[in-house]
Amino acid sequence: MSAQTDRPRILVTRKLTEAAEQRLATRFDVQFNASDTPMSAEALTQAMRDFDALVPTVSDRITGEMLRTEGRRVRMIANVGVGFSNIDVATAQELGVAVSNTPDVLTDATADIALLLILASTRRAYAAEKTLRDGAWTGFSVVDGLGTSIQGKVLGIIGMGRIGQATAKRAAAGFGMEVVFYNRSDPGALSFPARRLDSIDAVMQAADVVSVHVPGGGAAPLVTAEHIAQMKPSAHLVNTARGDSIDQAALVAALQSGRIAGAGLDVFADEPHVPEALRAMDTVTLLPHVGSATQEVRTAMGLLAADNLEAFFAGRDLPCRVA
Question: What percent of the chain has pLDDT over 70?
Fold first, then answer.
């Protein structure tokens, strides 16, 4: 048998950066997705039979039904993303399929986007740019298009993990924001001043800006309609975590009614679908899931997925095992 066919057979579901694809190609028998179009559920199911491992992204739904495919060959799923709610991890564990993710490498880039959205929402950047691009700007005005300053305001963090901490640190050190947060467990010592509150409601009531940094994929959103109803009328909500981390319909209703002042969203409940109601409002800044979208970070994510694959097939501990 040739060295080529001796190597584990890997499917990469979406295009990766050139450096990441080259690394994988030197170590595995790899099939790449040159078109970069999302794979169907049927194609992913067939892949379970044809490959030893998958390298999916957060946009690929790997269901329990897929994992239970008769004749499944896949033994490892190296997810490209810090989140893994796109994979039925419980079923993977039950069946002995290893699952890994790519944490840490995208922390700073995602925190940068969270700050961008905080500033864009509070300063009404989209509404201002739209006015200019539509040719409706009539010149400088002292009173038109006013946003709000964030200096001295309260930032509420829901989920004080790596990205939540990086966002809060930027806001506190760079903009003088006061930080409050809710986290299910004690995050330990922080390198910036922050007050831990005992509930999401308490954070919603206290904050001028709420930034969400919790995983999605649960039976229901962690940030509910009831939580959103606790926000100040002048408050803004930012989400760079997962679209299903919050009750998107409740957020739309709050924005449409003027119940809250604005929002900045990089993720959505049913990507790539974005509700027309959100796209129509100039109080919302929308980005197409670009939290980690830098050349450096996306390359690092691909290389870390390769690290996990190499460790698995060499019988070593995975650097980033989640199942």
Answer: 98
Q: Which two tokens stand for residue 130?
A: 């739209």
| Catalytic (active site) residue 184 | no
Is 271 catalytic? The answer is yes
Distance between CA atoms of 314 and 64, rounded to whole angstroms?
A: 26
CA–CA separation, 126 vs 284, rounded Å?
7
Exactly one of 227, 242, 298, 310 is catalytic; which is it?
Answer: 242
pTM of the model: 0.93
Tokens, residue 236:
């803004």
Is 276 an active-site residue?
A: no
Distance CA 190, CA 160 (A): 10
Domains along the chain with CATH numbers:
3-105+295-313 (3.40.50.720), 107-286 (3.40.50.720)
Alpha helices in 207-247 (DSSP H): 225-228
The torsion of the CA quartet 265, 268, 274, 275, rounded to 10 degrees, works out to: -90
User: Catalytic one among 23, 162, 236, 289?
Assistant: 289
Q: What is the pLDDT of residues 77-91, one digit of tens each?
A: 999 999 898 999 999
